[in-house]
Here is the input.
Amino acid sequence: MEKPPSPRYARGDLLDDVREASAAALAEAGRSPQGGARVWLDVAAASTWFFGSYLVLLLVPLSPAALALAIGSAGLALTAGLTHVVHPTIHGAVARNRRTNLILAHVLCPFGVSWRWWALKHNAGHHGYVNVDGYDPDLDQGVFFRYCSTQPRRTWHRYQHLYAWPVYSLLTLRFILSSDLGFVLTGRFKGRQVEPASARRAARVLLDKLGGATVLLVIAFVLHPALDVVLVTVALLLVNGLSTVLVFVPSHYTEGSAGVVPDTDGRVPEEWAASVVGASNNLILSNPVLRWYVGGMDRHIEHHLLPRVANVNLPVIAPAVRRVCAEHGLHYTEFPTLRSAWASHYRRLRALGRAGEPEAAGLPIVA
Here is the structure.
């Protein structure tokens, strides 16, 4: 299938207005965009949780029930590492220096995924073309899911709202075992040669991908039977995969999230920032522990508009962003709870699996 023309967004001043209003809100609150000590405390907390869980699994004799709890803790902690360490550092939202951000990502959350691939996939692809089929990599779930109305509908999609949840748990394993391997080995991303291919480069990027995780696994293999290590690792990665999806998916793939459909020449009638607002959701989380855990993903509209603003500052700028969106006549979507956002995602999957047309699925599109 031929790739559609690169999207070309209309010009507008929404993003400039958002930046100006957000800078004023941060200045009034006495905050820097990187968030200062608050961010470092969150990074330390997430990393301590993960490595603490790892050490318990490694060194403490556990009953079956305690082992299950420790595995769950490690899997959930790895997700906290993604929201508080990996995701913001790859965006450059923790430290001012790029090298410091990358060191933090490698050392504090050895996830087993190439950070260079992640930056291409997430920063350039997803953030650059939110909900644009063919350009937003997060919309491309292969033949397993139909995430938008422009993708072909297959017979089994009728049941995607049911099988999604166990399949979602495989997300991290898929990332580690297959998703980034083409880029790691060949330097190709989405059919394009983005880095020169060579054995030396492949070895360097493979070390970048697996170095930290390999150290943790080697220590575990030295102290425990290999089969036990493999089973525990797979189990915690399943927990991590499901919890990661449940944090990230409600931010874009719900009934109210607009898909962006360029015309045949690639033109999008909205400016980029307006399409981002229409394709993103916020969550209102009253539980402070859950609000901390999601690491700013509850303020996803603000995050997409200003990805280098630290997680802890997103609630500070949210009222200003909401006000600017209202001034521009844009709908600003907020779900009252995380559960309601999951339910909306469930209904979206069901509608897209059963309906042939976007109108029948009740899904808005930008065309």
Q: What stands out?
A: The beta strands are 8-10, 188-189, 192-193, 259-260, 267-271, 282-283, 334-335, 365-366. Confidence is low (pLDDT under 50) at residues 357-367. Residues 8-109+130-141+149-366 form one domain.
